[in-house]
Amino acid sequence: MKKRTIRDLAPAEIKGRRALVRVDFNVPLDGTRITDDTRIRAAIPTLRSLISGGARVVLLSHLGRPKAKPEAKYSLAPVAARLGELLGKPVAFCPETDTDAALAATKALADGDVLLLENTRFLPGEEKNDPALSKSFARLGDFYVNDAFGTAHRAHASTAGVAAFLHPAVAGLLMDAELNWLGATLEKPKRPFIAILGGAKISGKIDVIEQLLPKVDGLLIGGAMACTFYRAMGLETGKSLVEEDRVAMAKDLLARGGMRLTLPHDATVAPSLERAGEAKAVPRNAIPKDQAMFDIGPQSAASYSRAIASAKTIIWNGPMGVFETPPFDAGTRAVAEAMANATGKGATTIVGGGDSAAAVAEAGLENKMSHVSTGGGASLEFLEGKKLPGVEILDEAD
Predict the structure, then answer these.
(1) Residue ranges of the domains in the chain?
(2) What pLDDT digit, counting tens, does each position of 297-320 carry?
(3) pTM of the shown model
(4) How far apart are CA 357 and CA 351, in angstroms?
(5) 265 alpha carbon, distance to own chain's centre
(6) Averaged confidence pLDDT in the chain
(7) How far is the first Cα of the chain from the last one, in angstroms, to the nearest whole number?
(8) Is the pLDDT of residue 376 over 80?
(9) What DSSP line would sit under 220-253, residue for residue?
(10) Topology agreement, domain 6-174 and domain 181-383
């Protein structure tokens, strides 16, 4: 169901009113230095739109995993400073979140001002979606905007609960873009439509495989999860990661997937990650007993690249290997480069957040994809066909 967005609000619903905006500013920090501001940049279009409309912008976000109490290392203060630089205007910071002082700070704002409140996860009720905290959050704004797709799969007080008490409750521009890219692609994909799934465990991708198998023309498997399929085929997997309790399931998926489900033809193996210098490529039926698969092999990388080149729609979630440790980044890099080339030739390419997005960023190819999702877990659950609490609670479009 299509959700209302900030574009659907009348000027009188925005000007002079407090826009309580849930953003995803969960950025990596080295002390107080932000090492990657991608998520902050992603929120800028929504914030600029609200500022230009004369809204008084109040921002909520979490950062890290504090234990429901204040921890200095998880303060959002450095984020306020960086956001101010990106917006080109001062961003006020309040070291509190649901107190009378925070409420007073929201009421002191002038049109176009921006205020960032402290980490929502410093509060015990946030992750429990506590109604009392949700109601307290609702006091901080005159309407609610959820632009945090990365946390939309969490039913927390600031992502879902608050919208029960504060209306209008609409999607921001980033949220809308994420839903449109993922939704429209799955509903009416240009064909051939292929999906590439990687990562360590088949258990984390079972629902996605189940959801996508009937829809795609091809499903390419990479990462350590391929080894569970190998085991299901009776192949030697050496010291590779195998989920023994998922082997029967992998066998069933192989039978149902038939020609549409493709496994790597070869593997890049080594005795251990620490001995990456000894890496070598072997056929998938020749993995040594004393070694482990850490990446797809070069033949598979070339084969997958050809499949990507022939497709009109490609969705990718999960790396092909341990891409953080060269030379086990080769498979993931090959997929990223093939997708970038496919985009240039008119294909729709979507990267499903998380490690895949990190790998694309590392390769400097973000701008050569149709869409790179800001939410790993959220995009995964969307691909699984699950409803996202942070989206479901928003007002429906007319």
Answers:
(1) 6-174, 181-383
(2) 999 999 999 999 999 999 998 999
(3) 0.85
(4) 6
(5) 29
(6) 93
(7) 10
(8) no
(9) EE-STHHHHHHHHTT---TTS---GGGHHHHHHH
(10) yes
> Is 6-174 in CATH node 3.40.50.1260?
yes
Whether the predicted pLDDT of 353 surpasses 80: no
Catalytic residues: 39, 201, 354, 377
Domain 181-383 fold is Rossmann fold (3.40.50)
Quickly state the pLDDT bin for 45 (edges 50, 70, 90).
Answer: very high
**Which band of pLDDT confidence, cut at 50, 70 and 90, is reported for residue 1?**
low
Question: What pLDDT was estimated at residue 387?
Answer: 87
pLDDT (tens digit, 9 = 90+) per residue, 336-346?
A: 999 999 999 99
Q: Tell me the average pLDDT across 206-216.
A: 86
